[in-house]
Specification:
The structure is a single chain. With about 160 residues, this protein is mainly alpha-helical. The protein has 6 helices and 2 strands; from the N terminus they run αααβαααβ. A two-stranded antiparallel ribbon has the order 1-2. The radius of gyration is 17 Å and the shape is globular. The relative contact order is 0.19.
Length: about 160
């Protein structure tokens, strides 16, 4: 029970919950992009178009759903939600503003776009390692894209 005048803050989502949600969401978006580009374009062109297309579609998919509901399909499945970063003692944050959702999605997805270019693929890999490292930092459990956007991912299952 919270003290008078304060609300409980939802606990941060565990990294495993976030991983499963991201796998589900990425498969929902990536599978059609990869299948279509590989079926219709030469291999080298397909790699470039698929990377850029996936990045753009992930930005749209994530930002729209997070701004509207705070959840993507993967997050609904795993019982987690994106919120504006809660302030200590002020209760759980509400839905992210559209600008927060867009920044969050762009920081996460745009490193995917240049993946087909070798040196840029290495830089994207460094980004992902940094992102995971920050995600595992307790007690915050906030990935880089959440920190930049001012959002947090919380568990909505008790």
């Amino acid at each position: 029970m919270a003290a008078a005048g304060t609300q409980d803050v939802a606990p941060a989502a565990e990294p495993a919950q976030r991983l499963v949600a991201r796998i589900v969401d990425t498969l929902l978006v990536a599978l059609p992009v990869v299948l279509v580009t590989r079926a219709t374009l030469p291999r080298v062109t397909a790699e470039i178009v698929a990377s850029a297309g996936l990045a753009i579609l992930l930005v749209v998919y994530d930002s729209v759903q997070h701004a509207r509901w705070g959840q993507t399909l993967g997050k609904r499945l795993t019982g987690i939600r994106v919120v504006s970063a809660p302030v200590e003692g002020a209760g759980e944050g509400g839905l992210p503003r559209p600008s927060q959702a867009l920044v969050r999605a762009a920081v996460y997805a745009l490193p995917i776009a240049p993946r087909a270019v070798p040196i840029l693929g290495v830089l994207a890999g460094i980004f992902w390692v940094t992102n995971v490292g920050l995600l595992l930092e307790r007690p915050r459990l906030q990935a880089l894209h959440d920190r930049i956007a001012g959002t947090a991912v919380v568990s909505i299952r008790n």
